[in-house]
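Bit of a strange request maybe. I'm writing a small parser for structure token strings and I need a real example to test against, not something I typed by hand. Could someone generate the tokens for this chain?
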Amino acid sequence: MLAVSGAAGVAALAGCMNDNEDEELLDETDLDPVLDDVDYNENYEEEFEVVYPAPELNPVDDDYIFNPYHPRWNPGDLGQEFGFEYLTIYHTERSEYLPRIADDWSIDDDTLRTEVSLSEEYAWSTGEDITAHDFVTAYKLDGYMGLGMQDFVDIEEGIYAEDDYTLVIEPREEYSDMEEELWMTEWAETNLTVSEAQYGHFVEDFEDATTEDETQRVQESLINYEVSWDEVMYSGPWVFVEANEQFADQIPNPEHPIAQDWEFFQRTGMYVDEEGIQSGEVDWGDDTPEIQDVPDKYGKGPLPYDGQSFAIIFGNSDEYIRDHPEVRKAITYAVDVPYLTESTATDGTEYDEYSAGIDSLYVEDYVDADVLDAMPNYAPQDTDRAAELLESVGFERSNGTWQTPEGDTWTLNFSVGNWFESHSKVISNNLQEFGIDVDHYVEEMPTWQATTRANLDFDVTVHLNYGQARNYHPYSDFDGIFNDTNLGLFTERTGIVEEDVEVPEVGNPDGDTVTFNIPEELEAMSTADSEEELVSHATNLAWVHNQLLPAAVCFPWGGGHYWVNTVDWNFDLESDDWLTSNRLTHYLLENGLERV
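Reply from user aminoacidic:
Good idea to test on real output. This should exercise your parser:
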């Protein structure tokens, strides 16, 4: 089932449908431009101030497709958080969800049945009201694609609109005793990227499907749905109204209750990333910590934490990596993780000492201290230990290069997306200095996602893995480890870790082996009715991850520095509004941005 591997995981299938029946299905996905239906100020260039962001996003020639299930959907903040609005957002300091489109919500204490009342002030960029039916469409499509809360909710029966502005979500009976915190993470911070008007027919097709083949055909048609920048309905504060070879313009959405009062527009693609920062021409940016000699005109905003971790991820095509935890550990020991962290992470980031699967910023809250103390720490580079581990499997080093047990030069296919070019160079250099032959190459991220990741065409790669930037719960990390639609171990990567695993007894690396059933541990964690029970199951899975090392978690991921032109624009860098998972977007919505 395509739902098992998710949108990016099935990207290689996009465009593969050949028979007449499937072509007819794709014909139903044609769209007409809707930009003419947007009632915007066409004189914005003369009447509005212009802002130049550093991040690059220009959807000209459909470099980005505005369909969240399409392999070319990944435009970052400017496309997702700026173009599409949230049901609620989570404030990390206050530990509470703040209303956006949702006005209010109530959750039944016994059943977790949830009613969400929507604001009537929000509308799509075309002027059509945003209603509960739009959110039902979004939740159902995520569920049918294996990307949503289908484990906890009956997608067909458990999500519905009671009226135009009341959304109802009901968990399956067996999950009615979930922790409320965990339940809210499943639905509360939903980014509304699809409308019933443009995507509702896919829901009908899914519900009409009676076989797995029919369901797969609908999934394929949704993946192939190519929505251009001028065809999409925007729910968020910004609308693309121009895209050419030189630049693209985003103007405030005239239907957004907050953005409609702004009098500035964004021209993207003119001053890009580090080059733009160094030139001093940009007005704001969210960039890596590697930029040096930033002009004095830019203030330094607080460092956001994205709730994910940077990890070395192992593929399953190399039999030694797949079958031997010792080999995965050896590769990790050969990498200088402290230097990798210091040279590529935001200032003050500490490397992960445990690689336990739980985010290192929270691991001490959810894993028994004695077990943490007993965990091997793979982060400090230890090439002697790495050599011992490889030799224990039958590898030999000849003339400084590692040979497989069959006597062949061991070459690792190390393909990465270009978000992580500098990070992967450090890792590749470490491995080659240790004597491992590495075929290291970097691809544009959309290409890497659509081909390399979709086909699991790597022995080693790097990516952001595990974690979330909302109300923290260890279930979210472990669910990602094992069930993530792209890199989860129970999808295409099965073989590295099975559902039933044997590890040394918890807290004793030299003890007798014990067996854990991972799905059972996950389910028990999701319905734990005490902190003690939650910690017990989280400790078990953390130990499994540390001992089997399906991925080497290196450090918690920070979103980079905010660079803001503090000379020309008023921007309150001390505002608590920074402390949210939605970063700059949230600040603008709460406070605006004013010309000095």
